Every structure is written in C-alpha cells, then in structure tokens.
Amino acid sequence: MQRRLVTAIAVLLVVSLLIVAGMKFYEEKIIVDDATDYVLEDLVGKHPTADSVEIMDWETRENEEGEGYLRIRAAVTEGIYTPCPVRVHYFYHYPVQNFVTDPKEYITTSECTVCEGEGCVIAFQEEAIIASHTSTGAEKVHKYVEGYDDAVPTVYKSDEGWRVDWDSEYAKYGYEVTISKNGKIGNIATIYY
Question: How far is the CA of 48 from the CAs of 42, 89, 133, in angstroms?
Fold first, then answer.
C-alpha cells in the first residue's frame, strides 16, 4: 500500500514537472514569436521596397541586472536582382532596450565591393553576386553587366562555394561564374542562347 502511494506521488511529481516545463516552453515560444513579428514589422516599415526581410536567428541573454532578453538578428536585402545588392544586418534586443537596435552591420554596400582571397568568406548570395563581376579575373563579366542594363543574376550555393549565372534579354549569350568560398573566381563559362 505504501509502495503504491510512493509510486503515485512520484508519478504526480513527474507529470507536474512536465507540465511546468511545457508551460515554460510555450511561454518562451510566444515571446519569441511576438518579438520576431515586431522585428519584421519594424523592418518592413523602415524598408518598404526591400526584396527580402528575414529573421536570421535569435538567442536568449541576460543583462547586468540578471533580466533575460532576446537578441534577434535580422537581414534586409535591397536590389537582389541587380549587380550591386545591399545586405544589412540588424540586431534587436527585446524587450530590454525598448526595441532600439544595435548599430547596423553592412554585409554589402552600394559601393559594390567585397573582399577576395585569403581570409575572406563569401557567406551570402549578395556577396556572391558582387564577387562574380568585380573580383580579379571577372573583367569580361563586369563588362557584360555594365553593357546590358537588364543583366540579372541567378545564384546557386554549393558545398564548394557559389555559382552566379548572368542573363540579359538583349544579349545572345550570358555567363556562368563559379566563386570559391573565399571569393576567388573559379570558372567563367559563356552560355549561348
């Protein structure tokens, strides 16, 4: 009899702990969902013509007073179908800093340059687009992009790096450019239509 009582109490404790853990998970999910919704709404308001606005990731942190908050990283891309797309990362702290962002992190800028070679990492498609026509060895692709205003990039990512295909409605040819993860141009193939 006493053994059944102890077993019943143990089962109740386990069930109670699971319920509490489930409530905590549900509460955190609601907070994260609300925070990410607010971030997206804020960024869409600030960048109404952006091609892409996305939440990249988030993490929980604590401030000096031991209060928990979310640090949310988001990305905005403008001009993704142009030779010089601009990608900016934003960092939000929710709710600690009343939704004031950290300084922006410019991944690419309207200056249309990216690093290449040792120590560089081409991590985003916007960087691959720029590298495909501005890196050393891509001079003929750059002439193509400048010569055809309607030249549009299509980006593919692989384990080895990137491939950017350039196409213009007015040209009878285009280019397929492979780029390593460190920004070095690999192969440039002419594609005839």
Answer: 10, 16, 28
